[in-house]
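Dear colleagues,

As part of the handover before I leave the project, I'm documenting each prediction I ran so the next person doesn't have to rerun anything. This entry is a single chain, and its sequence is reproduced below.
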Amino acid sequence: MDIGVFTTRHLPALRELSLSFRWPHTVDDLAFALRTGRGYAALERGELIGSCFTWQFGDSVASLGLLLVRQDRQGQGLGRVLFRHAMKELSGRSVLLHATRMAASLYESEGFAVCGEVRQFHGVVASNGQPSGRCSTFDPDHEALADALSQADLGAVGYDRCSVLGPAIESGSLNVLGDAQTPAAIAVTRPFGRGSVIGPVLARTCEDAERLISDVALAHQGSFVRVDITDAFADTEWLNRLGLQEVDHVIAMANAPLPEGTGKLHRYALIGHAYG
């Protein structure tokens, strides 16, 4: 087995590997991950048997994800080998990842601790409501609004994620609750998997985040939508009424304290599991 740099030629094999875990990534989704980060490929006689990706944010923070090992090669320590290989690149950084409960013990043994929870909801949006009309959608080339989202995101999480956020904006649309100059909530909706993903979602309050997510979802009635919400939400019945059901629950973990956001808007939904 060799571990090398992941390239575009490995994308079709990674999609097949992700599908074996019932992950919905398309080749385009995985190409986005590669374009915004760095990947490592575990190869055996030229065949992909594992992967691990990293994304660096500024000088001190990173995220790690898409750690996959072919099911017939699990239990042999390959996941840990890939993980440690990727972590060498991130030495000295606070690293964020999202783990299944089954995988959490691996990361705990490598010095990671739980720092939150994320709940994935998805489904075909029900045709039983209408958007409130309080939200507006803008094209990704709205430069002033894209800059406002980037600054709001920096304030919400405490570190610069423009290396991922910029491409996410370019591939989707910008959603705003209230005044575009001083929004109560702001989000990105972009193509992902079988439909669209809403995230990140930044808002002043849970109520503002709920209003924005609901309006964006209702604008996609009859289509597949996904949102990965943080543990800031106590009530999720409103998501069920939209036709979105909880399908996964992962644990946010970090190997060192992450910066704290100090902005007026807070993070209520992720860009994606891999990016935070």
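Residues 126 and 243 are 5 Å apart (CA to CA). The first strand starts at residue 2 and ends at 5.

All the best with the project,
I.
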